[in-house]
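Researcher: Here's my situation. A collaborator sent me these components and asked whether they could plausibly form a single complex. I don't have experimental data yet, so a predicted model of the whole assembly would be a useful starting point for our discussion.
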Amino acid sequence: MSVIALLAQVLRIAVPYLFAAGGGVLAERSGIVSLGLEGFMLSGAFCAAVGDYYSGSAWVGLLCGILGGLLFGLLHAVATIRYRADQVVVGIAINLLVIGLTRFFLRLAFDSSSNSPRIAGFEGGGPLSGWLAGAGPMIPLGLLVIPAVAWLVYRTPFGLRLRAVGEHPAAADSLGVPVARVRYVAVALSGALAAMGGVYLALDQHQFTDQMTAGRGYIALAAIIFGRWNPLRAGVACLLFAGAETLQIQMQGTQAIPSQFVSMIPYLLTIVALAGVVGRANPPAALGKAE
Amino acid sequence: MTTTALPASEPRPRGAVRAALEETLLPPVVALLIALVIGDLLILAFGQSPAAVYRLLLEGTWGNAYGLGQVLYKTTTLTFTGLAVAIGLRAGVFNIGAESQLAAGGCAAALVGLALPAGVPGLLAVPLCIAAAALGGGAVGAVPGVLKAKFGAHEVIVTIMLNFVVLALLNWFVASKLHVPETLHTPEIHTGAVPRLSDAAAAFHGSAANATLAVALLAAVAMGFYLFRTRRGYELRAVGLQPDAAEYGGVSAGGVWIRALMLSGAIAGVGGINYVLGYKHYYEEGFAGGAGFLGIAVALVGRNHPGGVVLAALLFATLSQGGLAIHALVPKQMVEVFQAVVILAVAVSVPEVRRVLLSARRVQA
């Protein structure tokens, strides 16, 4: 297997992580815990499949997926910001809610308990079309998300407010920053971005399958924490985790290391990072605080 | 952010009990009402009558012995995981790891049941298996406890990540060392099986309800005693309410966190015997099946009180079992949506009810 093909595989695995981690960083830097990434992704995948199926166009699917993620992002935002509900509980509830809703509407729309009918993907093209066929704009977009989020967080007035709100909401408020509004925007955006990761999965596999995100939202969360809430480092962590996964796929059948051990790597690294073994992991000061 | 300053004056002591009750009971009631409305909408979306669906749900769960037995079986596991989450929350730590602690406990119980020779009497084997389950779950719970107390690592993230690590470890262990070929489970345990409910009352035949239910109720009573009648329980609740104040009063918050998370893991772990000793008599990959996560919902709706947890477990077990009953009319996944809406609605209504009650009392005063 050539090096380029290997890198293409890493990229394909990394793209959903990059979208979700990029979105999650925004929410977390605004002070809202991002446990709902998994649900946002799954909602994106399902809405994309529905939109794509009924229109026949992957672009419509992408749009529907983004809207679906935006909707659940807003739900998360209303519950945690307007009603100050426990952010951890809301995140978990959103994940369960989306699993249930997608299963319910899978039955309602496609009369199936496991998957949607085949949907159209993006037509090939692009410089690496041989290795990245069918991904259309999703891979370039996925690669752009992290730099774009980094630019937004560190180089724009909105980013400055976002960080202020996440570190010290009371101080930001006294300076006239609309704390709630900044958080609404951040969490809604995180839903839309994470959903794009799910859209990619559905379009790439040409269908929606039950629980197809399979924990990827949690890996993205792990990447955010391992990247110490810095978007660029989180992006690198996504690539690192995707690299480990590629290695595991390549080694399948060789028995050298049980696949379960390789699958643990992101989670173990995150626990180690949280325990402060490799430098201190400093979350945004107001992360998870209700008021 | 504008935070309305709360008045320093507390509600009058005479109405204090009533106020506390209102604050405790209203959120789950409000949440259930919200969930019912959304449930109705979903049922209507599927072109069915809500009344017919709810009738079917009740008939399939409480309406016959088999259904009731299944409800009691599911109540048992959910009581353990609900108590586990609740004791953590009482200490101010959020254990999201009940799922893997439950699995680790079940695996440990199965290992002991396999290691003991077939001749060992149940009176000795069952307590040994329970102890092993508690140790297995407790060991998993100790990790986030120590990491939080010693390094300040947030237990929510550690327990989430640990879920994946522990489940992968267990899968690897069973798949590579202990499984029956062509299956994902261990051989059957030699000893330690507990009696089924159907052994006592034949009507329950076929349902999985077993004597573990009694262990679950005992655990609830014991936890209530521990929390509200012992010094350690008092310390635990003090740390949960205000760790700095508890530290000032001479309680080590870190020590309490470690203890609470170990206890939490142990309780969740013992839940594993419901499946392993009571139902299938082996450990199987994925037997926890989300009961650990539903434990969060159970603790939340049960307001972290042992009695409330048992009732909430009964409610969620009824819903889970009811999903199968209503499948003829609407997809059983409707129940999953309903459960998630309940969680979301409780989370929202806890702070909201408190605010509404506070402002209502201020108007009165």
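Model: Some features of this prediction you could bring to your collaborator: Chain B has a mean pLDDT of 91. Chain B has 15 helices and no strands.
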